[in-house]
Amino acid sequence: MRRDSKDQAWKNVKAQVAERDKVCRLSRILTVQEFITLRQRAGSYLSQLDAAHYRAVSEMPELVYDPNNIVLLNHYSHSLLDDYKDPITGKPIDEETHNKWWERILKGNPEQYNYLLEKDLLRGENE
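Predicted structure:
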């Protein structure tokens, strides 16, 4: 499912997520050292914010417009997480580590995390 500038529903949900998150959700939960490393590696992509789906649209298209399935992430880290790479270092990661990163990011907003937990949309992060 491709979203673009003509998709009003996508524009609306992105605005809603931007209003809720304000800044990159990953940046808010990093240690100082992690953030320094991220800033060095991401460069200008750190300030470019993407609406990132937790559950992939290809996996669960019914959640494409659900703001609880979307967070603001910097472009660098978003691209890496989508490719199963560490969102700071870019090194390949396994599914368990990928899920742990998402757990850290999502737990930064307990309401959103609890919604996903209640809807049984989390992938083993709460085990």
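Summary: The helical segments are 8-21, 25-29, 32-42, 75-82, 95-107, 110-118.
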